[in-house]
Amino acid sequence: MTPLAAVVLLAVAALVIGVAKSGFGGTLNILAVPLVASALRADVAVAVMLPVMLVADAVAIQQHGRHCSAARVKPALAGAGVGVAASGVLMAGLAGSPAGLAWVLQVAVGAVSVAMVAVQGWRLAGGRLPRVPDRPAAAACAGVASGLLSTLAHSAGPLMAAYLLEARLNKRVLTGTLVVFFGVMNLFKAVAYGGVGLFDPAGLALSAAMLLVLPAGSALGLWLHRRVPEKPFLAVVYAAAALAGGRMLWQAFAPAT
């Protein structure tokens, strides 16, 4: 890949991160991961993305954080702390190459995301199914899974969004809860990444360059959030979760070329 192509991919990824955080609670953030990973090695990519995500988190929390559902985010963050810590230990123990574990998690989150979107689609079509219990234990379990996957690949958006969509939160509460959850969890991840030595001056310089594009993405995301009605908004979240989950399954099972 040419340096110019890499710069373009990183700029587009920064724009997507801003739109995702400020407009869609971070659920579209997974779309930025393959862009950065196409330009950089996977271990470098996750480290470069995190500082950009932290700044986008701060902006999104200022915009939407007051609508957060504390009753749901607190147990989810407790679980996320466990998941992030476990992934940090695994990354250190496997010398930054947890290929087998990453594959298992990729399949699991892809399948869960697609399945939960299918369930919601069935309900929207008039079908009746038992609801997932809206309890702290369920939130904690979703947090553990999100912490594990997000630490390895910044890819927990579909999983947490699918869980919260089960509670049928309105657009403001859903977005506020997502941005607070991911904002705090990304701070946990920064500690884990620092502990295993993923940050370096060259990577941080790339992060700083990506931040130049971030404000445009944040402004566009907020504009979309304020103008997209609730039902189309939920459709976007469902579609993003289904596409991202399906993409993860495809990548896991596609034959090597």
Kindly describe this structure.
The chain has helices at residues 3-24, 32-39, 42-64, 70-93, 99-124, 136-153, 157-166, 171-195, 201-211, 214-227, 230-253. With 257 residues, the chain is mostly helical. The protein has one domain (3-253). The radius of gyration is 17 Å and the shape is globular. The two termini are 18 Å apart. The model has no long low-confidence stretch (mean pLDDT 83). It is a multi-pass membrane protein. The chain crosses the membrane at residues 30-55, 76-95, 101-122, 173-196, 202-224, 233-253. InterPro entries: TM_pro_TauE-like, TSUP. It comes from Phycisphaera mikurensis (strain NBRC 102666 / KCTC 22515 / FYK2301M01).
Sheet having the most strands: none
The percent range for helix content is: over 70%
Briefly note the structural class of the backbone. mainly alpha
Number of strands: 0
Terminal CA distance reads 18 Å
- Write down the secondary-structure element order: HHHHHHHHHHH
Number of structurally distinct domains: 1
Tell me the Rg in angstroms: 17 Å
Low-confidence stretches: none
Number of discrete helical segments = 11
Judging from the principal axes of the Cα atoms, what is the shape?
Answer: globular
Average pLDDT across residues? Answer: 83
Strand content: under 5%
